[in-house]
Each structure stands twice: as C-alpha cells, then as structure tokens.
Sequence to fold (220 residues):
Amino acid sequence: MLKLQDVTKMYRGRAGRVQALENISLAVQPGEFVSVQGPSGCGKTTLLLIAGGLLRPDAGQVAVDGRRPYDLAPEDRARLRADLVGFVFQQFHLMPYLTVLDNVLAASLAKPSDDGVRQRAVDLIEHVGLGPRTHHVPGELSTGERQRVAIARALLNRPRLLLADEPTGNLDPASSEVVLRHLADFADAGGAVLLVTHDERAAQYPHRAVRMVGGRISED
Ligand SMILES: Nc1ncnc2c1ncn2[C@@H]1O[C@H](COP(=O)(O)OP(=O)(O)OP(=O)(O)O)[C@@H](O)[C@H]1O
Ligand SMILES: [Mg+2]
Fold:
C-alpha cells in the first residue's frame, strides 16, 4: 500500500543544511500496522509527510497503492491523497468554531460530497464513542475526545492508508489506548497504518516496529 525506496531528504534553511532522512526504505502492506519509533529530531515527521504526498523527497521513490505521488501534477496528487490517505496528528488540527460533526465533514470538502457522507460522519462519530458530543465544538471536549474526532475525520473518505504522527503525544494512558485500538482496528479491517512516535507504550499494538536514529532505519 505504501512503498518508500531509498528516500533521502535534506532541509536547506538559512541556518544551514540538515540531513533529515538518509536512504530510507520501508513498505507497509494492506492490513499491516507499522510503527516507527525514534528520538526527537530523527526524521519521523519528515518521513510521514513524504509518505503522504505532502513533502517532495530529494531522491528516492514513493508509491501509494502503486502510484507515485511526486510524479503527478499537484491537483492529481491532492486527489490521490484525498482518495487514499488519512492523517492524524498530535495537535489534532480541528477547527475551533466548527462542531464535531462539521469538523469530521470538513474532510469531505476535498471530495465531491455525496448524500451518504453526512450519515457516514454521524456513524463514525458514534464509532469513536462521541455520539453525545456530535454538536459540541472542540473547546468543549477533552483532549482524548479531540483526538477521536481527528480519527473520525481521517476515516471519512475511506482511506486505505492511515498516517499518524505522535497521535498519543498529548493523551493520558487510557485515551492513548483507545486511539491505538482504533488504528489497530483500521488495520484489522484491511487498512495500512504507519504510526510514528517516541512513545514506548505505543509498541504493543503495531505488528511491526521499526527503529529510526538520525534519519536512518536502525532496526526493522
Ligand atoms: N523546515 C525545516 N528546515 C530545516 N530543518 C528542519 C525543518 N524541519 C525539520 N528540520 C530538522 O530535520 C530533522 C528531522 O525533523 P523531524 O521533524 O522529521 O523530526 P521528528 O523525528 O519528527 O522529531 P519530533 O519527535 O521532535 O517530532 C530535525 O533535526 C529538524 O531540526
Ligand atoms: Mg515530529
């Protein structure tokens, strides 16, 4: 579902160059839940952005469901993302003035909306246990509940690949479990999950743990 081959990325900033990734090769199959663990600054977020078609690597190949996002025109790349990829981030990125339902539905704006989409949003909110919070805004939710909204949003377009960047970073152990359980369920249903984290507790759910140090994979 996701294939990275010899991916390399260097940031060129005013303060100089940072080699963020060096020859990373990694594949995630449908139904597989892979975690990448490593210290702060080792390149985890960079890896996820590249995998999701959001950041072009300097060298190497990226394929999502056999298609190469960086060979596509920007609008086709955006379409590939909307069709296949769901993102979950540590900071949730919810719209503060939208209700839970509208935040979940916001994911459908990139896609022509169909009649079933609203019902699907309602069902997903129920699925993550937030039925009674459907019409709340994020400011009226706990941190763990916000992350569950972000998961429902990420699932709206029926992605086949879920990319999660430190999704439990702001959560207590019980909420972390719930979030990881949802990612595991997605993989059990045939989806591919790539989770990047420095959270050691996150290790019990993924099928495969990859270790990263200094922009390289040290263990797979
Ligand atoms: N836009 C940028 N310009 C220059 N350097 C950057 C930029 N973004 C990230 N870096 C550097 O690239 C390296 C990898 O960053 P990245 O955000 O991928 O790390 P990370 O593993 O996600 O860290 P964390 O666990 O703290 O989120 C770091 O050394 C960082 O300082
Ligand atoms: Mg990061």
Remarks:
- The longest strand covers residues 16-28.
- The domain at 2-219 is CATH 3.40.50.300 (Rossmann fold).
- Residues 44-45, 165 surround magnesium ion (ligand 2) (CB under 6 Å).
